Structure prediction request, 686 residues.
Amino acid sequence: MLIALLATTIQSATSLLYATIGEIYSERSGILNMGVEGMMMMGAVVGFASAYNSNSLFIGLLMAMLVGALLAMLHGIITIVFRADQTVSGLALSIFGCGLANFLGQRLGPGGTSLVALSGPKLTKIAIPLLSDIPVIGPTLFNQDILTYVIYLLIPFAAYFLFKTRPGLHLRSVGENPQTADAMGINVNRTRFIYTIVGGLFAGLAGAHLSLCYSPGWTDDLTAGRGWIAIALVIFAAWNPSRAILGAILFSGIGALQFRLQAIGTDIPSPILNSLPYIFTIIALVLITWRERSNKSIGTPAALGSVYVREEKR
Amino acid sequence: MKIRFEKRLNPSRNIQYLIPPISILVALGVGGLIMKLTGIEPLTAYKAMLVGALGSSYSISETLVKTTPLILASLAICVAFRMRFWNIGVEGQIVVGGFFAGAVALYLPVLWESIPGPLLLFAMFIAGFLGGALWGFIPAALRAYIGVNEILTTLLMNYVAIMLVQYVYVGPWRDPHGWGFPGTPQFVEKAYLPHFPGMRVHLGLIIGLVAAVIIWFILSRTKWGYQIRIIGENIKAAKYGGINVIGSTILVMVISGGLAGIAGMSEVSGIMHRLMDGLSAGNGYSAIIVAYIARLNPFASILVSFLLAVLLVGGDQLQITMGLPASFASVLEGVILFLFLMGIIFENYSLRIERSKNHSGLLASQSDSQPK
Prediction:
């Protein structure tokens, strides 16, 4: 029972972590992308539809990444080339992505019909020999799907890349002080563009993990606000990949717990349980902002949300 | 060859007026392409949308019904966005406002059976305002005192509002004689907002128009309206200039949430006549697009609300008459906003095409530097 709860927690944290790590890349470069929810929705619907129609999980995941990247590229074009407000462009991306995903969900099934309630290929759990035999930890961490194993590697990689490599330094410098980065010879806008797209790849996978693994299949509004929770997690994690793990597990744990409580039957009405992860996210956001403020150690990239144009002082 | 943006000496007024219509036209083109790719004949679909939204006096009145909450909700956005307070929580504020108004409509006549109709409506109006204001006050206080990111708090509170209010009308307040209908009993008739003869357009539309005038006056004719713009543009200057930032933030969100709450009251009392699904119809999100395209101008918001209502009612008709997903309307909404965002740059910049062969990057940027 406890192990099932922990395993579900890890499974639901996977999707959140993909979205969060992706957004950390993007925001570290100075581009705030509020379109995570839209990119996840599109990743989920396109991932599921491609996997269903081609009967190949690989194609599903590939298409989900592609569509996430394309949408992020759109955000990049609008905010970097056309210098539009990043907040509003991100909101537009969420509205557009969610609308288009719900639209496509009704059209991408066999012969232009609905995808809802179809069952297609899904990522299965792979038990890692030996490791999965460890009590508690084994079935929790090492009997998961491939995307979960990949994120185990991607998180330390992201932490290493951001803080220990030269390209990682460049990435952070364009998000902290683009003028100086430019003077050092780093192409600010190209760097930002690249990592915005990287963020989209991750968000697409985050969506595909939902529709191909966590809750296989497609329903309208499948992501149910997870994209927004991921953006909150970025703040919670202070733009630090390894700190995102704790946050994602905490949030997913609450979700998994309420799911369990509903399954075994409790007196607490389910809508109240359902709203807990959102309430909890808000509370966590308040506490973390409070703490960071008194510590003066906020990790917000200094140039987050600002346009960089070489010849104009801002 | 190199294409770059060159700063205009003066922002172009003409372009400012051209951006919205061009955005909408191009968006229709992009939407047509999406339809074509998913096997739908665009012209047939657009015709169905247009006829559905404007083809008869009935459909026009339905479009006005949809315009009503959009006007009030977009005014809520105008007030908050003027201060660059990103209130994405209008959807939830509508729901809570509607819920408060509905609670009054259901239970005040029980306590006081002979309550005069206008008084009951007024009580519902105040309750709606307070409900929305409460839901707006929370993120405002968190932002003003602690600095919590308001985009996330307002947005997440939408989910909380929708789930909790749904719980109440499906659970404890469910109509005992409704054969399991997920909603409360109907209100007493005096809790209905009066409507225009022969159609569903109701007093809420007039409330919206009056509110637009009031909000316009506050924003552009009062000192406080000027102050919140300063806060939005430069919070440090605002503090330095002695503007009460904390108080203004909270007041802005009480007004913004309150307007959204009135939108909820107007839907509940003018259209639904009970609490049920449909209170959260996405108006809070559509209103963001309305207000942004209207450049946070209350009067322009009225016009844009109507245009977007045409789109949304047309989208519903697409579903009814052609069996196509109504979510197509939100696809168009998103595209319009994208194009609008891309268009804004042309107000202050013009495109310049350089055929440079021996210009180094440095020279190009020098020739581009703006005259002081």
Remarks:
- The first strand of chain A starts at residue 126 and ends at 127.
- Residues 2-28 of chain A form the longest helix (27 residues).
- Chain A has a mean pLDDT of 88.
